[in-house]
Amino acid sequence: MSQVLSKSPKHCANKQGFTIKKQHKKFFCIFSSFFTSILSLILLLWLILHPSKPQFTLKEADIYQLNLSDSHLLNSSMQFTLLSKNPNQKVGIYYDQIQIYAAYKGQQITVDTLLPPFYQGHQDSNLLTASLVGTGLPVAPSFGYEVGRDQTAGKFVVNVKMNGKLRWKVGTWVSGHYRFNVNCVAVLPFGPTLPTPPLTSNQGTLCSTSV
Fold first, then answer.
1. Which has the closest alpha carbon to 80: 181, 200, 174, 210?
2. Looking at the DSSP assignment, which residues form a beta bridge with residue 79?
């Protein structure tokens, strides 16, 4: 007598469901492996081509006007020339937003000024010139006293501050935006025996940069 084996519909359905789940799991594993490989490749490229932050040097500083009223309102006019350098051999830099102003003893003495955006190629350098002004800017009551102390010391110290957004470019790949901050210190000769403005300095001071 021959034995006949039969499978119930319920048994077949269970087996088919198990096969579908297995296929989904296999697809998920393949996708996860591919995604992990892409992330690892991007991370490896970033580690190899990790960009150095840009370098800025204050080349020249000229102060044409710095007048303080009795009501502690300041009128100012000055110009600064900076050298921007990209030290990277394989990474370009898009400067999408650049804002610059001058400060004295922690007080802003000009309004914010926007510089035009630009692209900086590998190891390229660019000169940036900014004319800064301030009209009726409120300052602390001690501002005149601090300026008098600097005049007695024979030097006027002003900070040139710049901030904005940049993007890195490697080949055809362009990163997202990164914020950057630049701080330059200008020391200008300043004393009672000096001629009338402008006060001028062209010593070439290296600025601090953070990204």
1. 200
2. 62, 131
CA distance linking residue 202 with residue 81, whole number of Å? 9
Phi-psi sector, 113: left (phi>0), alpha (psi -120 to 50), beta:
beta
Apex CA 69: angle with CA 74 and CA 163, to 5°? 5
In DSSP terms, which residues pair with 28 in a beta bridge? none
Under a CB-based contact definition with an 8 Å cutoff, are residues 77 and 113 in contact? no
CA distance 198 to 135: 18
Q: For residue 2, what pLDDT is reported? A: 47
Paired tokens of 70: 């009795």
How far is Cα 26 from Cα 64, in angstroms, rounded to an integer?
72
Secondary structure letter of residue 168 according to DSSP: E
Q: Would you state the pLDDT for residue 51?
A: 87
- Report the C-alpha gap between 94 and 178 in whole angstroms: 10
Confirm if 79 and 129 have CB atoms less than 8 A apart.
Answer: yes
DSSP state of 147: H
Q: What is the mean pLDDT of each run of 10 residues along the chain (211 residues)?
A: 51 54 68 75 64 94 91 94 95 96 96 97 96 95 91 92 95 92 94 72 90 93
| pLDDT score recorded for residue 23 | 66
Q: Kind of pairing, strands 92-104 and 155-170?
A: antiparallel
What does the angle CA 154 – CA 110 – CA 165 come to, to the nearest 5 degrees? 115
Distance (Å, rounded) from C-alpha 31 to C-alpha 117? 40
